[in-house]
Amino acid sequence: MDYNPLAPEVQDNPYPYYAELRDKAPVAWIESMQGWAVSRYADVDFIFRNPRLFSSALWNTTASGDLVVVPEAPGLLSMDPPDHTRMRKLANKGFTPRLIREMEPRVRTITQDLLKPLSGQVEADLVSALSVPLPIIVIAEMLGIELARQATQDVELEGGKLPAGATVLLLLGAANRDERKFPEPDRFDVERNPQDHVGFGYGIHYCLGAPLARLEGRVALEALLFDCPPFTRVLAQVPRIAAYLVRGPRTLPLRFAITRRAVA
Ligand code: HEM
What is the domain range of residue 216? Predict the structure, then answer.
């Protein structure tokens, strides 16, 4: 199957391609990436659970295309135990649940400050106004990303065989929509509570910033839904970030319904 992660139609909606990969080529050679894409949940989960069979040393920034989300992340991500174990222990200290909880008021203030200039505007781009600067400001204040793994020996997965030395790319978006694992995975369900999705990875490299990302997402959505005037999307189709690692809009213009205050 000819799967090109950077093709505009794939970037726009990768899920039909993921479904085809899971069914027809669950372990597929991807020419443009010179690696093997693994799309079934069971296989992604197996690889996450076996860091000794799959080394992360190969991780490199090309995986993120033209978007460097968290420049510090590749350091940890490209380490294997025991170096990884030591560094991760140190990094964990900056991301304890208590520290993240204590950041909520500050994340809210930053969000409000970023949204303030939009007040009274009819149209604004959500990506440049909020989605990009919010996590950057938060991490800059805190200071201090899926990507490639390499098979250390021949491995037989449910979906096929991987030769020793193979570069392996885990399609987390495909694993999370695997109907072999989750019921009705394509249905948007805000009350879904899957404890075992792999959106933040799993195992020793599980996303260090997951609680922070969740906090930022919640605070940003609360501000947009409760503090801003009602809004609609301007474009039916938005331009996408050209990257292997993440999928998201490059710009997301919103139109706000500005309600005039009654003059007393
Ligand atoms: C919604 C936003 C985010 C998503 C979807 C996400 C996703 C992921 C995933 C899938 C991994 C595992 C990669 C692998 O095992 O190969 C990961 C690792 C990591 N993430 Fe995130 N991440 C997000 C936000 C953040 C933020 C805000 C930070 C920093 C504050 C962060 C820092 C890291 C670090 C340091 C690692 C490497 C951990 C290790 O190797 O031990 N992430 N992330």
Answer: 8-144+146-256
Q: What share of the chain is helix, strand, coil (3-state, %, to 5)?
A: 40, 15, 45
Nearest CA to ligand 1 atom 7: 200
Question: Is 3 among the domain residues?
Answer: no
Ligand 1: which atom is nearest the Cα of residue 88? 41
Residue 247 one-letter amino acid: R
Euclidean distance between the first and final Cα of the chain, in Å?
66
Instruction: Give the DSSP letter of residue 124.
Output: E
Q: Is the CB of 103 under 6 A from ligand 1?
A: no
Ligand 1 binding pocket mutation candidate from 99, 145, 147 (most atoms within 8 A of CB): 145
With H, G, I as helix, E, B as strand and everything else as coil, classify residue 167. Answer: strand
The predicted model gives 144-164 an average pLDDT of 84
Angle at 176 between CA 153 and CA 253, to 5 degrees: 125
Q: How many other C-beta atoms are found inside a 10 Å radius of the C-beta of residue 83?
A: 12
Task: Report the distance separating Cα 260 and Cα 264, nearest Å.
Answer: 12
Please choose, from the candidates 192, 169, 176, 177, the residue with its C-alpha nearest in 3D space to the C-alpha of residue 245. Answer: 169
d(CA 255, ligand 1 centre) in Å: 32
33 touches ligand 1 (CB under 6 Å):
no
The CATH number covering residue 251 comes to 1.10.630.10
pTM comes to: 0.87
Q: Ligand 1 within 6 A of 185 CB?
A: no
pLDDT of residue 261: 58
Question: Which residue has better confidence, 71 or 36?
Answer: 36
Our answer on whether the CB atom of 139 is closer than 6 Å to any ligand 1 atom is: yes
Residue 237 belongs to a domain: yes
CA of residue 80 to ligand 1 center, whole Å: 16
